[in-house]
Amino acid sequence: MDDDLFVCQVYIDDIIFGSTNEEYCKEFGKMMAMEFEMSMIGELTFFLGFQIKQLKEGTFIYQEKYTRDLLKRFKMDDCKPIDTPISTNMVLDVDESGIKVDQTL
To answer: Which residues are in the Reverse transcriptase Ty1/copia-type domain (predicted)?
Structure first.
């Protein structure tokens, strides 16, 4: 049995895919190109507003460009930055006896 993994994600007309086996990616790219007009951009760096950085330590997703564009849109790109107003090493626990919150509001 093959232990390789292939993952494909489709969002409207954007497709990202990857595999632990490079041959799977090549074959999938060929099959898709035979059916659809498409271009292979290469390693994923930007998708659905997220910036993606792939390193040996892992894959990191961030929104620096989105944040800068948002600040510029509201003419706040020259504002003074501040640190996060909460301890970054704080551990949050579940409040089992707390009141449930409607997350859709």
So the answer is: 6-87
